[in-house]
Design goal:
275 residues; mainly beta; 15 strands
Length: 275
């Protein structure tokens, strides 16, 4: 068993903003000047616990749990601030701030030589940015964020699952933090079942007999819909809805079977067939 604490700091992270000088004529056919700059920062703290156990020849497993917190003022080179002339409010919850992560894998040998190998990955909720969908400050970027509503009778106030927001903030109102929205978590369970037969008898001093292995594999066994982050644009009819699956692990449940004939020198033949 191992317990580790990790503290990470980052400087010179990339982000984008509008640097068009006010009242100055730009080059012909250029109305706005955008800049990639390496002025972003981040901070992350993680407590990671790992457990590896080999109980006996039939049972072994590995598991980990991580608790973390990450803050930043940019998530990528394409991240624009809500106001290109005021970067201070951008520091807040990072896009990769996932508080809880669990991983588990193991190998369990049962009667008749059946070997079961599960693999579980699960994470808690993920943050996403909420924007108005309009350019209120005139920096040509549609990343302006709403304010926390203080007067629910105003026509510019909208009620959402994440709170009441004012889409036309007045002076003195508090603008919501970056990545204020809370998106779905992720759960994925894969399961592999294998059975190996020896083809022939073992004879001392001679090459090991060939082996025939049958395998059945189920991906996303629970058929859990791992959806992408919701639409954070308050002007969109899809606000708060996830309209896609997570890339690389959000597909529907899949089942596969395979067989393999091998000798000690290597694999002779392999064929895969989808169920």
């Amino acid at each position: 068993m191992a317990v580790n604490y990790l503290h990470s700091r980052g400087w010179h992270n990339l982000r984008s903003r509008d640097i068009t000088p006010t009242g100055i004529v730009t080059a012909p056919n250029v109305s706005t000047v955008y800049l990639y700059e390496s002025s972003g920062i981040f901070k992350q703290d993680q407590l990671v616990t790992n457990l590896t156990a080999r109980i006996n020849a039939k049972i072994s497993f590995n598991g980990s749990y991580a608790f973390g917190k990450a803050s930043s003022d940019t998530d990528s080179a394409s991240t624009f601030p809500a106001d290109s002339s005021n970067l201070h409010p951008e520091y807040g919850r990072a896009g990769f701030d996932i508080r809880h992560r669990v991983q588990f894998s193991g190998s369990f040998l049962f009667r008749w030589g059946l070997r079961l190998s599960p693999m579980l990955v699960a994470t808690s909720t993920r943050p996403f940015n909420i924007t108005i969908g309009r350019d209120l400050n005139g920096d040509t970027i549609f990343t302006d964020r709403p304010a926390f509503a203080t007067d629910l009778s105003r026509s510019s106030v909208v009620q959402t699952a994440f709170g009441a927001f004012d889409l036309a903030p007045m002076p003195g109102q508090t603008i919501i933090p970056r990545n204020y929205g809370v998106g779905p978590g992720l759960v994925s369970l894969n399961l592999r079942l294998a059975k190996t037969f020896k083809l022939g008898q073992e004879v001392k001093g001679k090459r090991d007999p060939m082996e025939l292995t049958f395998t059945a594999l189920s991906r996303n066994l629970l058929n859990h819909p791992n959806v992408a982050l919701p639409d954070g644009n308050l002007s969109s009819p899809y606000f708060g809805q996830s309209t896609a699956l997570v890339t690389g692990g959000g597909g529907n449940r899949q089942r596969q079977s395979a067989n393999r004939v091998s000798v000690s020198a290597g694999i002779l033949k392999r064929s895969d067939r989808a169920w």
